[in-house]
Design a protein that fits this description.
Length: about 140
């Protein structure tokens, strides 16, 4: 089972239904600049849209992975926050206290395993569930 199929099932979507029919193409809608996603870096305030199902932090340096998570999470009603480095992701996790974190293993600077150890030692982040992810085939 692919990671995104598993993720969709985990978040309550029907993976089986998505294999039978392709969704109708969405109409292009211009969105105001205030709704455009931004990348968190340094001390910037995290971006997220209000939703009811919870807050999920994605720590990954790949714009493609972030776009895929956004496509899955936001329509499902989750607030999505993201950071492009482990150091920034740790700061965001401490500030925002998300319900779940998806953490890439291979990141610039501090890697995902070091970030995981840091968050597990921190009383503010130790109880947050973390799913380690990687685009590496090995």
């Amino acid at each position: 089972m692919g990671m995104f199929t598993w993720l969709k099932r985990l978040l309550g979507g029907s993976a089986a239904a998505s294999n039978h029919t392709a969704p109708a193409p969405e109409k292009a809608v211009a969105k105001p600049a205030s709704e455009a996603p931004t990348v968190i870096s340094g001390n910037e305030k995290p971006f997220f849209q209000e939703a009811d199902n919870g807050k999920i932090l994605v720590i990954d340096d790949s714009p493609t992975v972030i776009a895929v998570f956004r496509k899955i999470l936001q329509p499902a009603g989750y607030n999505m926050i993201y950071a492009e480095s482990a150091e920034t992701g740790i700061r965001v996790a401490r500030m925002e206290k998300p319900d779940l974190i998806f953490l890439d293993i291979v990141l610039p600077g501090m890697n995902g395993f070091a970030a995981l150890r840091t968050m597990r030692k921190d009383p503010l982040t130790r109880a947050i569930p973390i799913v380690m992810i990687s685009g590496n085939e090995q």
